[in-house]
Every structure is written in structure tokens, then in C-alpha cells.
Specification:
Layout lengths: L16 H4 L2 E4 L6 E3 H18 L3 H9 L5 H14 L7 H4 L3 H9 L7 H4 L8 H17 L3 H12 L8 H8 L12 H19 L5 H4 L6 H18 L22 H12 L15 H9 L10 H12 L5 E5 L6 H16 L4 E5 L2 H17 L6 E6 L7 H10 L28 E2 L15 E5 L1 H4 L8 H9 L2 E4 L7 H16 L4 E5 L4 H12 L15 E5 L6 E3 L9 E7 L4 H11 L4 E6 L3 H15 L4 E4 L5 H15 L9 E6 L13 E5 L3 H8 L16 E6 L1 E3 L6 E2 L1 H6 L4 H14 L5 E3 L3 H9 L10 H22 L29 H7 L7 E7 L5 E2 L21 H8 L2 E3 L10 H9 L19 E4 L4 E4 L2 E6 L3 E6 L8
Parallel strand pairs: 3-9, 4-7, 4-8, 5-6, 5-7, 8-9, 12-17, 13-15, 13-16, 14-15, 16-17, 21-24
Antiparallel strand pairs: 1-2, 3-10, 10-11, 12-20, 18-19, 21-22, 21-23, 25-26, 26-27
């Protein structure tokens, strides 16, 4: 059936017949296979190549530092671990799976039961776990290592399939030695083969003489995890039959000759074309920050660098390279540019090979991706760099999808000396990659964050503290970058529990981190700094008016702070005034204020309140003078809404003639550079109110006479005459009860009473610190209500943190302790799905649907208003739609409102949605639609679901009303 393959050159060239017959890979469809020794050699070669040409310098240094000879030991260790990671395949429990290959091994003296004889016990010996046991046994018996010492090295093999084994699994396998070696006459042969292969792996990596020196090494847990991730990648690449071909009956001998390990690697590496890590040189300080900004950013004519940007660059140069940089500055001060400039400096100082930017939402991530690409185009010319947009709807982003199309190609080995076929005219020319690319291999599942430059939602960072499969890959991705987290004030206690653990691990990896905020409470600043520093931090508690503020902390280092002034000419007094919570009163007041024209922003805390206000304002002002923006629009419509807001109200916006009103939810709070003459906002936590006020008089422009002074009207209070005033119920639900709302009212009292206007940016930090500290605020007779609200609020915070602990990764343990059980009691796979995001956000799992329309003639179509010719495309139900139509449906995604996610309704909702299923769409040729829930609207864009009426319009989004004729249990 199968004949023996000739021995490969190198360390595996003198193996016994029995060792040569162990197999590592098999394709059940083609019967192609690969000897274990060949996969060991391939994996070792790939690991060396990854170390030499792809792994960022900071990770190589992290590994090298704990080893006696530094970088040389680091490379050898990585190659040895990759070579030996699959030794667990040289066991009866693994080898019995393919009868033909198992019989070859039996004929060489390696007896084993068949799968049926093993029964269910075989699952106790997955080859990763078996490999860990064999490597520890070899190290302990051959070199006299202790179990504790060998475990920290062997755990790499144990965890190379995504989850390091726990003590229970090790114990269970120890009770079944027959899974490792067949008892009886062949037991010695199994042992000899296993040792022979491990000896060959040591020779291949050149480490035979290093084990005595390594016996005293204590690998840190970050090093163990980084090496595990490197071995996973080497294994994945070496396991690709397109890159490293398997043997067939007619081509077994071709694994040798011109297919020597070196040539196999060269052919595979050319086919893979993996872009190298970024290697920036530190910008020369002589020219100063101003010159750096002029070179990296498209600044407006006559623009000058802002003080906070200059100080951020200065501190980035002076702080310890492994440190946390916190930039606090008002909205519109250029914090993003400051962060990118600091990232370039810190990457050069540490050897980080890229940058990751995390933001609160998909919309803010999309906007940042464009800015990142522009920045990258301004960096000094270098080798090709990989980029990635990391969120579930990235394929709908035009810039990202364009890069994806450009990067599509076949990944296969390239034979450098293959002259059997010359190119013909018209053949595609293979070129080395250049510029920015969405590398096809790095777009694969679980690999995207490994691209050098990544923008994504905050979940991508928080997942690094979630016990989940292949977490090591996510850690490697973050460990090789400078990590920038924007809007760091925007995350609640549940998310911050994960964020603080992530910062602890990033510090252990020596990753520079940059945090950005306009409104960061001092307590949060301290908590984030101490999470990174791993100790109490002195010098971080500054006066409330220390703003803007640049802070740098590092483990064991002193705190650096800088207090730059705000940019000149950016002081804006804002008159703050209470307004009754009545839509008629709102419309009357806006009619007065906008009598001479002007643009007003009305921010409401719930979508229902947005729609209620918009209905009345349209009645009074006309449909064309009112724009609605909230989260309950289709994905494509939300993107168009944001673009339209920027077109009209951005820095160079084409503002409408006469009066115009935008009624919006919290979607306008962050990362949209829009400017209004008048603000009406529901009462919210004070930091969020200040964010909203940042949309007032943001850019110099001529305004109507009545609106030349900035004014903020506060709604969302049911009764201003109450003492203390009572926030409306919807706001209580959104903001975890009354406490933060009452604290906001308390600190805003001097401004609400007209004693003095609120000044931006001067009052931002004092108001935020006063609202979030424990000092009394507001009138004395409010104290009882505030105390009661505080107690309820803090009880909720404790509950959030306790629930977050359930699946949160443990802290970094001391060096030398193996990561055994590191992910025990984890969540399995954690992807950017509603289920995955619900693990790191304190929210119920939302129900996401794709929206289509059925015409009166029964034909299914995309919704009619989609642009670029995608509206009204017919969707066949007997076959998959065209790629263009399917993508248009995917762009029509929406998350259903909170009602449909409640425990008493979610199962009914999903069951009703699943009644519409098109079998022809549930195929791999239709990835956009397969497995998705579809909401079908009638020709009037209406439907019923779970006892509710649903209506969708381009102007209002999704409107949900209860069907009074149906009983809905609550």
C-alpha cells in the first residue's frame, strides 16, 4: 500500500524504520499523507523563519531576556518547541486513527489497538496533551530536570491546539499509560521511537547542549504564551498542504531531492509572502514635535501644533519605553494625532512591530481606519505592511473591502527552480507585495489581529482577558504592538474589570499603551495606572483643574506628568439652562431660538424619546428640517447618516439654509467632528453631557445673532420643582439608576441657576472630578437621596465586577510557573459575534437580523433605498443571490431593540425569525447569508414579530409598537 519514504537530509536523516513510519498528517479525501518527521522538520523551519523575518523585535527580546545566551537561545528554543510540538502523534492513541498508516507502523513493531478497541478512553490523550507528557518525561529522565521546570517548556506542546491542559486532564491521562505506549513487547519500541524523534528535534534546533543551561531558567508566563502562539502559527503554516505538499503514492520520493527542508521552506515562504513586522526608526528630536506633525499629518494651512500634542511627544520620548501614556484633553484637541505620534516613538524605542487602535463602536472604528491609512501613507517608505479592520461588519467598509479585493490571491508554494513552464503573454505577473495590504492569510479566522496595523472595537482588546480558545494568538498580536485605546472613559465597571486585567498582561509583555480621554475621572485614571504599573502609583493625584493632562507611568518607575494649556482661542462659555421635559415646550423654545435660522442638536437618552421628539418637531418645522440619528438603523443607513451629518455639520460642512434640527441618541457623543449652534440634551452623567457640549460652537463660523453665544438646554427631568429633581424613567434605565444623574445635577447647580456660565475646556476636569469623587455635592438636604442612590449604584458595580470574574483571565503569575489550567472553565471560542461581545460587555445578547423586503408580487428584494444601485435587487429563493445582492443584504443588518432580547421573549423571537429560511442560501457559496436570521418586511416596510408591530423607514429607522391584541408576557 504505502512504501517507506527515503530519509530526509538533516537531523531526521538517520531515523530507524519504525520512527520513519510514524505519520503526522493525512487527508481522508485524497489519502495523501505526511510523515511525522517531515512535519517536525517543516514546523521547525517555519518557526525559524517567523523568528527571523516576522516576529517583532520586542517579543524576541522578551523571550531572549530570560535565557542564558539571549537571542541565540531564544531562536533555538522557538525552533525546538516547534519541531517537537507534535511528538504526541507518536502514540497509539493518535496513530490508530488511519488503518493503513497504523498497519505500516504495526509492521515496524509498533503495536496498537484499533480505534474501536480503545473506545472512548482515546479522548483522554489528545496529541497536544500526550506531547506535553512525553516532552516532560524526556527532559526529566534524560537531563534530570524537575517536573516544575520541564512543565514550563512542555506546556507549549500541550497548548498548541488553543487550550493548555489543566491538572485534571494530566491526572486522567496518567491513569491510562496504554494511550501513550502499548503495553507488552512493543512498549520498549514505542519508547525508543519517541525518544529517537525527540533527540532528532533537539539536533534539528541545535539545542542538544543547551538543556543543562536551561535547567535553571524560569520562563515568565508571557514568554510561555508568546512561544505557544509562535508554535501555533508555525504549525498552521507547516500544516497547509498548499504550502507544504503531502506525499502521494506517486510522489512520495519528492519529499526529498529538490524538496529538502530548506527548499520546501523557500517555496512555501515565497508562496505565503507574509509581510514583515514594522521597524520604525525613532523620529529625530532635533526638528521637534512640530516638524514631526507636519510630516505625518495633513494639517490645514497655517495650522500649528497644539500644546497637548507637543507635550505628548515630549513625554513619549522621556518616559520609560515600557509604559502607560494617558492623554486627557478636550474634544477637538487632536488627541488621535498625538497618540499616533507617540506610538511611532514608542514603537521605535521598544521594537514593537505595529499599532492597534481600539474604539467604542464599529462606526468610530470605521472612521479611525481611514485616518490610520492616511497616517501610514505618510510614514517613511518601508517594506509592505499588513492592515486589518477588526469588527464583525468590516466587510461593509469601502476602504477595507477595497484592500481585500486587491489582496485576493492563491496562497501556494512557489518553486523557485521550476522551469517546466514559462509565462505566456497575458498571464498574471507575480509581484512582491508593496504598500498597505489586507494580507489574505492574515485575514483568516483568529489571525486578523496579527496584522501589523489594526483598528477595531474595544472588544478586540477586552477579549485578551477572556478565557477563550487560542487566547495565546490574541496575546501575541497585542504583545507585538503599541496599543492605543480611545474614549477610555466610555467603558462601564464590567468592561473595566476586563480592561484592567488586559493592562496587567500588556505590562508584563512590556507593551506601550496609550489611553485617550476627554473626561476621565481621577479614580479611573488611578485604577488604570495601577493596573498597568502593578503597584500603588504616587504622583498621579493632581488638582481637579489639572487639564489638559499628560501622564506616564511604568512598573517601578516614577510618574511623569505634564499640564499643557488648551489650544489658544478654544475657550467657550456655555450658558446652561433647565427646560421642561415636554415636546411641545421643546418645539416652542426651538422655534424661538431658530427664528433667524441656525442648527440645533437635540440629544435624547433613548431611541423612543428621539422618535417622540422628532415627530413633534417635524410637525412644527417640516420633514426636511429635521434629521434623526440613532442606533436603530440598518448598518448601511447608519453609515450614510454619519456621512450626511459630517457633510452638513463637519468642519467644512455645507450647512442647510434656515433652521435645521438633528434629533439623536448617544451616537453623536463620540468621534464625530460635528458643530452646532444650540444644544438641547437630556440629563446624563456629567462626563457625557460635557461630551455633548463639545459639539457646541466647535469650529469658527458665522452664526445667527441669537446663537452667537453657546447655550445648552437640559431636558430629561420629569419634575424640576422636585427636591432633588427627578430624572425621567428612560434615563434611569440607561444609566444604572439615579446616582450618576443626581451627581451631575449637583455639580451643575451653579450653572443651571445662572450663577455663571460653564466654560469649556476649563470646567471639564473640575466638573468630572467633583461628580465622581466621594465628597458631598449639591444642597445639603439632597444628602439622604444621594446616599441611598450611591448605595444602590455601588451594589450594582460590585455585582458587575463579580459577574465579570466568571470568565476573566487570571493575573500574571510568578516566573517559572507553567500556564497549566490557564484557560480552565473558559468560554470556548470567543469571536466578534453578538455572543462573543456579550461576554465582555455587560449586556444581554442582542438579536441581529438582516432586513429584506417582499413585494406585492411575492418577489424578495433588497430594501429599495440602498445606494450604488443596490436597492431593490431581486433575491432568488431557489439559488444563492449574486454576490452584489448578498452583500447588499448583509449591509442591511440591524440589532433588534432590547424588548426582543429579554429572557421571556428571545426564544419566541428567534423561533419566529427561523420560520423564514431559504435552504438555497445555507451554503458555503453564500457566506454573507448562510446561518443568518432574516426579517422580511412587506412592501410598506412593516411586519409583526413576537407580539409587536415593526415599521422601518429611511428617515426614522426601526419603530416598534406593542400589538395590544397579542399577549406579551413580561
Amino acid at each position: 500500500m504505502h512504501r517507506d519514504l527515503p530519509a530526509s537530509a538533516g537531523a531526521f536523516g538517520a531515523l530507524s524504520k519504525a520512527a520513519r513510519r510514524t505519520w503526522g498528517k493525512h487527508d481522508r479525501d485524497t489519502e495523501d499523507w505526511l510523515p511525522l518527521r517531515q512535519h517536525m522538520a517543516d514546523s521547525a523551519a517555519v518557526a525559524g523563519k517567523l523568528w527571523d523575518e516576522w516576529l517583532p523585535r520586542n517579543i524576541r527580546e522578551l523571550v531572549a531576556e530570560v535565557l542564558p545566551t539571549g537571542m541565540d537561545d531564544g531562536r533555538r528554543l522557538a525552533v525546538w518547541l516547534a519541531a517537537s510540538h507534535d511528538i504526541g502523534k507518536a502514540t497509539p492513541a493518535f496513530a490508530c486513527q488511519v488503518d493503513g498508516l497504523a498497519n505500516r507502523m504495526r509492521r515496524a513493531g509498533l503495536d496498537m489497538p484499533d480505534q474501536k478497541q480503545f473506545g472512548t478512553d482515546r479522548v483522554l490523550a489528545p496529541h497536544g496533551l500526550a506531547g506535553q507528557v512525553l516532552i516532560q518525561e524526556w527532559l526529566n529522565e534524560r537531563f534530570g530536570w524537575t517536573v516544575r521546570t520541564s512543565a514550563q517548556f512542555a506546556i507549549v506542546a500541550g497548548g498548541h491546539h488553543g487550550v493548555p491542559p489543566g491538572d485534571r486532564k494530566l491526572h486522567d491521562l496518567a491513569q491510562h499509560p496504554e494511550l501513550i505506549r502499548t503495553p507488552g513487547p512493543s512498549e520498549a519500541k514505542w519508547l525508543a521511537v519517541q525518544r529517537e524523534l525527540l533527540d532528532a528535534c533537539a539536533r534539528e534546533a541545535g539545542v542538544e547542549d543547551r538543556f543543562s543551561a536551561w535547567a535553571a531558567v524560569k520562563l515568565t508566563q508571557p514568554v510561555q504564551v508568546a512561544l505557544t502562539a509562535l508554535v501555533i502559527l508555525a504549525d498552521w503554516i507547516a500544516s497547509s498542504a498548499e504550502l507544504f505538499p503531502y506525499a502521494t503514492a506517486s510522489s512520495e520520493a519528492n519529499l526529498d531531492g529538490k524538496h529538502t527542508p530548506g527548499k520546501r521552506l523557500d517555496a512555501a515562504w515565497q508562496g505565503l509572502e507574509l509581510p514583515p513586522a514594522w521597524e520604525p526608526a525613532e523620529p529625530e528630536p532635533e526638528g521637534g514635535a512640530a516638524e514631526l506633525f507636519a510630516a505625518r499629518f495633513d494639517l490645514p494651512p497655517q495650522a500649528t501644533i497644539r500644546p497637548v500634542q507637543e507635550e505628548a511627544v515630549r513625554v513619549a520620548r522621556q518616559m520609560p519605553a515600557t509604559g502607560l501614556l494617558i492623554i486627557e484633553a478636550p474634544m477637538g484637541e487632536g488627541k488621535t494625532e498625538a497618540a499616533l505620534a507617540a506610538a511611532e516613538i514608542l514603537a521605535a524605542r521598544t521594537g514593537a512591530g505595529g499599532c492597534l487602535i481600539a474604539l467604542p463602536t464599529r462606526a468610530t472604528s470605521d472612521a479611525m481606519f481611514s485616518r490610520l491609512l492616511t497616517w501610514l501613507e505618510h510614514l517613511p517608505a518601508a517594506k509592505a505592511q499588513s492592515v486589518f479592520l477588526a469588527h464583525a461588519k468590516a466587510a461593509l467598509n469601502d476602504k477595507w473591502s477595497g484592500l481585500v479585493r486587491e489582496g485576493n490571491r492563491t496562497i501556494a508554494a512557489v518553486e523557485a527552480d521550476d522551469t517546466t513552464r514559462m509565462p505566456k503573454p497575458g498571464d498574471p505577473i507575480r509581484r512582491s507585495p508593496a504598500g498597505l495590504q489586507a494580507h489574505q492569510w492574515l485575514r483568516g479566522r483568529k489571525k486578523g489581529l496579527l496584522a501589523s496595523f489594526t483598528v477595531g472595537t474595544i472588544d478586540q482588546v477586552l477579549f485578551a482577558a477572556l478565557k477563550s480558545r487560542h487566547l495565546a494568538l490574541r496575546h501575541l498580536a497585542l504583545a507585538g504592538k503599541v496599543v492605543v485605546i480611545d474614549e477610555v472613559h466610555a467603558y462601564d465597571a464590567y468592561m473595566n474589570t476586563y480592561l484592567e486585567r488586559v493592562l496587567e498582561w500588556l505590562s508584563a509583555y512590556r507593551v506601550p499603551v496609550v489611553l485617550l480621554s476627554a473626561t476621565l475621572p481621577a479614580a479611573r485614571r488611578r485604577a488604570l495606572a495601577e493596573a498597568y504599573a502593578g503597584q500603588d502609583v504616587s504622583g498621579i493625584d493632581l488638582p481637579a483643574d489639572a487639564y489638559p493632562l499628560v501622564t506616564a507611568v511604568s512598573p517601578g518607575g516614577r510618574t511623569l506628568t505634564a499640564r499643557p494649556p488648551a489650544a489658544s482661542g478654544r475657550r467657550t462659555p456655555v450658558a446652561v439652562e433647565a427646560l421642561d421635559d415636554d415636546v411641545t415646550a421643546l418645539a416652542d423654545r426651538l422655534a424661538t431660538e431658530l427664528e433667524d435660522g441656525g442648527c440645533a442638536l437635540v440629544v435624547r437618552n433613548t431611541v423612543d424619546r428621539v422618535l417622540e421628539a422628532a415627530q413633534e418637531l417635524r410637525r412644527r418645522f417640516g420633514e426636511h428640517r429635521v434629521t434623526v440619528a440613532h442606533s436603530r438603523f440598518l448598518a448601511a443607513d447608519r453609515a450614510r447618516n454619519d456621512a450626511e451629518l459630517l457633510r452638513m455639520f463637519g468642519p467644512d460642512g455645507d450647512r442647510p439654509e434656515g433652521a435645521h434640527i438633528v434629533v439623536a441618541s448617544q451616537v453623536v457623543e463620540q468621534s464625530l467632528d460635528i458643530d452646532f449652534d444650540l444644544l438641547v440634551t437630556d440629563l446624563a452623567p456629567v462626563d457625557l453631557m460635557l461630551q455633548r457640549m463639545g459639539r457646541l460652537h466647535r469650529h469658527p463660523r458665522t452664526r445667527p445673532a441669537r446663537l452667537t453665544n453657546a447655550r445648552c438646554l437640559v431636558t430629561g427631568v420629569a419634575d424640576w420643582a422636585a427636591d432633588p429633581p427627578a430624572p425621567v424613567p428612560g434615563s434611569l434605565s440607561v444609566y444604572e439608576g439615579p446616582y450618576l444623574l443626581l451627581r451631575a445635577l449637583a455639580v451643575l447647580q451653579p450653572h443651571l441657576t445662572g450663577a455663571r456660565p460653564l466654560e469649556l475646556p476649563g470646567d471639564i476636569s473640575p466638573l468630572v472630578q467633583a461628580a465622581y469623587d466621594d465628597e458631598p455635592a449639591g444642597p445639603e438636604h439632597w444628602a439622604s437621596e444621594l446616599d441611598k442612590a450611591r448605595h444602590a449604584y455601588r451594589t450594582k458595580l460590585v455585582d458587575k465586577r463579580e459577574r465579570a470574574e466568571m470568565f476573566r483571565l487570571g493575573p500574571v503569575r510568578k516566573p517559572g510557573r507553567a500556564v497549566i489550567g490557564w484557560l480552565d472553565a473558559g468560554v470556548g471560542d470567543a469571536d466578534d459575534t453578538p455572543q462573543g461581545r456579550a461576554q465582555v460587555r455587560d449586556s444581554e445578547e442582542s438579536v441581529e437580523v438582516l432586513v429584506v423586503q417582499r413585494r406585492r408580487d411575492g418577489v424578495l428584494t433588497t430594501v429599495p433605498w440602498l445606494d450604488r444601485g443596490c436597492g431593490g435587487l431581486e433575491l432568488p429563493e431557489h439559488a444563492p443571490p449574486s454576490a452584489r445582492a448578498a452583500q447588499a443584504v448583509a449591509a442591511s443588518a440591524i440589532s433588534l431593540p432590547w424588548q426582543f432580547s429579554k429572557p421571556w421573549l428571545v426564544d419566541r423571537t428567534i423561533a419566529e425569525l427561523e420560520k423564514f429560511c431559504v435552504p438555497a442560501w445555507q451554503v458555503k457559496q453564500c457566506p454573507w447569508l448562510a446561518g443568518e436570521l432574516v426579517l422580511v418586511l412587506d412592501e410598506e416596510c412593516r411586519t409583526r414579530l413576537s407580539g409587536f408591530h415593526l415599521r422601518y423607514s429611511r428617515s426614522d429607522g426601526l419603530v416598534v409598537t406593542a400589538d395590544r391584541s397579542a399577549e406579551v408576557q413580561e
